[in-house]
Amino acid sequence: MYASTKLPRTSALFVSALLGGVIFTSCASSHQPGNQALPPMAGDGSVNQLSARESSISQKAEAASIVRSRPQLIKKAAISLTVNSVEKTIDAVSQIINKQQGDLIGLKQQQPKTDNPRYTATIQLRIPENLLEPTLEELAKLGTVESRNITAEDVGDRLVDFQARLTNLQKTEANLQKIMDRAGSIRDVLSVSQELSNVRETIEQINAQLKSLQNQVAYSIITLNLQAAVSSTSSQPAFGLQVQETWNKSTHSLSSFSVGLLKLGIWLVVYSPYLLIFAALIYGFNRWRRTHSPHLTQAPESTSSE
Fold it and tell me: Is the pLDDT confidence value at 67 over 80?
């Protein structure tokens, strides 16, 4: 009898210990960075806020564990050159861009003017980061270097943060998808679906920011300022330029005069009742003076004639 009663108790204790070990193991594994366990559900069907805190702690732990092999720098350079011919230099810059596998992302040319008689141009280039220095050396050979500077911004911490957040959000997305598959009531399904939509939207935003930073690190921007060494007045078509300028001024003056006449006509139409009243008063006053003034002035004339 004693043996028969001891065996069930031993089995029960063994099963309880086994279940406790499984529960303890699952609870411990839920705090690991690579955990794929499902986030707990609150009583109202929404995802428990505790999972968000755990995800944040896991995110910081992963961000701290990532070791960068080299600084992640966004480099920008600016160089100003004085050249003999701006147009020929632009053609040479195009050849350098093709040679260095870069892109022309901006070009602004300024024709000579009275206040600035020099021909100038501003060019923006995008060059692979490892070819920045060789490209600057090639550009410096095109003319006389007036100024040159390079700036760099380290965005390694931001890249690590974005990567850690993206990894954790992808894990959360997978867990929410599992909850979505096993959710029973419509209320639970709608709640998890809303959380899943928010997580996916955040993933897309972070992924876009991460790709933008990676692209800025991979490619450097060069701003090239060019100016002619001497005034390029000979390149201006003097007669044609003067004719065009005169034509533009005359047409502008004609349009301004026409608009002024139109505005004056509108003012006259609006104030026409007052103008008519004023004209009637003047006309009446003149008639009254003509009818009364002759009797006073003609009497002395008749007396003197007699």
Answer: no
pLDDT surpasses 70 at 203: yes
pLDDT tens-place string over residues 5-22:
343 444 334 334 433 443
Q: Are strands 219-228 and 73-83 parallel, antiparallel or unpaired?
A: parallel
DSSP structure class, residue 39:
P
The Cα 143–Cα 87 span in angstroms is 13
C-alpha distance from residue 243 to each of 112, 248, 252 (Å): 17, 9, 14
- What is the 3-state composition of the chain as percent helix, strand, coil, each rounded to the nearest 5? 65, 15, 20
Distance of CA 225 to the CA centre of its chain: 24
Answer yes or no: is pLDDT of 224 > 90: yes
Among the listed residues 35, 40, 62, 42, the one whose alpha carbon sits nearest the alpha carbon of residue 51: 40
- The number of beta carbons lying within 10 Å of the beta carbon of residue 119 is 23
